[in-house]
Design brief:
Elements: H1 4-15, H2 22-25, E1 47-57, E2 63-70, E3 81-82, E4 85-87, H3 94-106, E5 114-118, E6 122-124, E7 129-137, E8 151-158, H4 159-163, E9 168-175, E10 178-187, E11 190-192, H5 194-208
Parallel strand pairs: 1-7
Antiparallel strand pairs: 1-2, 1-4, 2-3, 2-8, 5-7, 6-7, 9-10, 10-11
Length: 217
C-alpha cells in the first residue's frame, strides 16, 4: 500500500513540471474580480508575500493541509481562512518568508519542513499582496502552537475531502453593495474562499494530476 511518503514524492515530481496556473486558480475566484486577480506582472505594484501550504499525514495517514482561522481584529482578511504566511522582510526570499511566518503563526520548525515545490504566484487586489505559495511537507502530524495575536484556531483539511465535488459550493453574496457568485470550499462548516481558495484550487489540481492519492484510498 502506498504511503504518505509516496504521495509526497509524486507531488514533488509533479510540481517540477509546468503548473496548472491561473486557469486552475480562477475556478475559485469571486465573480466580481476574476479579471482583477491574476499572476503578478512588472506593471503590478504589490507587496511580495510568502505563504506555506503544509501537507502532512493525520493519525490515519490521510494527507492533510494546514489552514488557519485569522483573528477578526486583523487589518488584512480578518476572520478569514488562510495559509500561514505574510509579507517578505528585506533580504528574504519568498520561501524563507513562508517558513518564517509558519514558525511565527503556528510554531512549525522550519528546519523540519521539506519544500516540495512552488505554486503559481497570485496578485490579491484587496490587500495589495503578491502571494507566492509554496508546498511543504512534514512526514508526521505537527505539534502546533497558534500565535494568539494572529490565529484564532487551526483548521486541518483532509485532501480527499477537499477533492470531493460536494465540498465546493457557489453562493450568491452581497459584497461591496453588489450581488455576486462566490465559490468556496466547506471545511467543517468553515468557508474557505478568496485567495486561499484560489491557491488551494491549484494545489488540488496538481494532486488530481497524480495517481498517488488514488492508490492510498
Amino acid at each position: 500500500m502506498p504511503t504518505f511518503d509516496h504521495f509526497a514524492d509524486a507531488l514533488r515530481k509533479r510540481l517540477s513540471k509546468p503548473l496548472p496556473g491561473f486557469e486552475a486558480q480562477r475556478t475559485m475566484a469571486p465573480r466580481y474580480d476574476v479579471g482583477q486577480r491574476g499572476i503578478p506582472t512588472d506593471e503590478v505594484d504589490c507587496t511580495d508575500a510568502g505563504v506555506l501550504a503544509l501537507l502532512y499525514p493525520d493519525d490515519q495517514g490521510t494527507p492533510t493541509v494546514l489552514l488557519t482561522i485569522r483573528r477578526s481584529n486583523l487589518a488584512h482578511h480578518p476572520g478569514q481562512i488562510s495559509f500561514p504566511g505574510g509579507r517578505c522582510e528585506p533580504g528574504e526570499t519568498e520561501c524563507e518568508t513562508a517558513l518564517r511566518e509558519a514558525q511565527e503563526e503556528v510554531g512549525l520548525p522550519p528546519e523540519e519542513v521539506s519544500i516540495l515545490g512552488a505554486l503559481t504566484p497570485l496578485y490579491i487586489p484587496p490587500s495589495g499582496f503578491c502571494a507566492h505559495p509554496f508546498v511543504g511537507m512534514l512526514p508526521y502530524t505537527p505539534q502546533t502552537t497558534p500565535q494568539e495575536d494572529e490565529v484564532e484556531a487551526l483548521l486541518p483539511a483532509h485532501i480527499p475531502h477537499l477533492l470531493h465535488p460536494g465540498t465546493r459550493t457557489v453562493e450568491t453574496w452581497t459584497l461591496h453593495g453588489t450581488q455576486i457568485d462566490v465559490p468556496f470550499y466547506d471545511v467543517e462548516g468553515h468557508t474557505v474562499w478568496g485567495a486561499t481558495a484560489m491557491m488551494l484550487a491549484e494545489l488540488l489540481d496538481v494532486v488530481r494530476s497524480t495517481d498517488a492519492l488514488l492508490h492510498m484510498q
